[in-house]
Amino acid sequence: MKTLYATVGAFALLFTAACDQGETVLSETATTPATETADTSVPAAATRRMYVLASGEVEASDLLGASVHDMADAEISVVEDIWLSGDNADAMLILRDGGVAGVGGDLRLAAFDAATIVPDANKAGDEPNVIVRLTKDSMGTLPEFKQATADDFRLASELIGKTVTINPGGDSVRIQDLILAADGKTNFAVISPDLISMEQIVVDGDAIVLAQGDADGEVVLDLTAAALAEAPGYKRE
């Protein structure tokens, strides 16, 4: 994917200060100071500020399976997936045209920023509705979506729930969700700081990159220890 999100990883340099052993004075043995190291531990959830969605932002997981309505509020489709922005390409909604219960039909591409995302009055706190300037008949005029390569990490569904490695450091974390801007750009990734933690934190979406070298093609998060320590918390749903 990044190709999907190209970014430059930052590497933290850690310095330790060596302390000389003190001399014996008046028959009392001086205590040797302990060597100090930088604290890179992730702070407890209680010490973090909490992130709140900004106006226009939406969780990618809420859009997957969301109803698509025309301007007369008739349901015409569902959101099958989200083609994430990258490589100078804008984000797109992947809509299912036809089919029954999410099976069959064709997959069509609609511009993310041309859709209006609104809360569903009948599903408080659940999937929103997506309003588009289309009708059921005109769905067929949209370009058809065919994924060239599976697991190229350009789809939101390929990232949500994926276990990835932090670079540098090598720790494994899980991407729980993506926070998208009104134009579909991935503003943030919601991650669990380790594979057993119930905590969630929010990190820069540009930290999601494709690994180079031995892990070529795998997704990693380019995050320093400082970035992890300063990341705001996010309320689990």
Structure overview:
It is globular and about 50 Å long. Among the domains are: 65-141, Roll (SH3 type barrels), CATH 2.30.30; 160-230, SH3 type barrels (Roll), CATH 2.30.30. The longest helix is centred in the last third of the chain and has 6 residues, at 225-230. Strands 1, 8, 9, 10, 11, 12 and 13 form a 7-stranded mixed beta sheet that branches. A 6-stranded mixed beta sheet has the order 5-4-3-2-7-6, with no helix packed on it. It is built from 3 helices and 13 strands; from the N terminus they run E-H-E-E-E-E-E-E-H-E-E-E-E-E-E-H. By secondary structure, the protein is mainly beta. 6% of the residues lie in helices and 27% in strands. The chain starts with 57 loop residues before the first strand and ends in a 7-residue tail after the last helix. A hairpin with an 8-residue loop joins strand 4 and strand 5.
Largest β-sheet summary:
7 strands, mixed
Question: Order of helices and strands, N to C?
Answer: EHEEEEEEHEEEEEEH
CATH domain fold name of the domain at 65-141: SH3 type barrels
Output the number of helix runs: 3
CATH evolutionary superfamily of the domain at 65-141: PRC-barrel domain
Q: Give the N-terminus to C-terminus distance in angstroms.
A: 27 Å
Poorly predicted ranges: 1-41
CATH class of the domain at 65-141: Mainly Beta
Tell me the total number of β-strands.
13
CATH architecture label of the domain at 65-141: Roll
**Radius of gyration, Cα only, in angstroms?**
23 Å
Shape: globular
Given helix and strand content, the structural type is: mainly beta
Chain-averaged pLDDT = 79
Percent helix among the residues? Answer: under 10%
Q: How much of the residues is beta strand, in percent? A: 25-35%
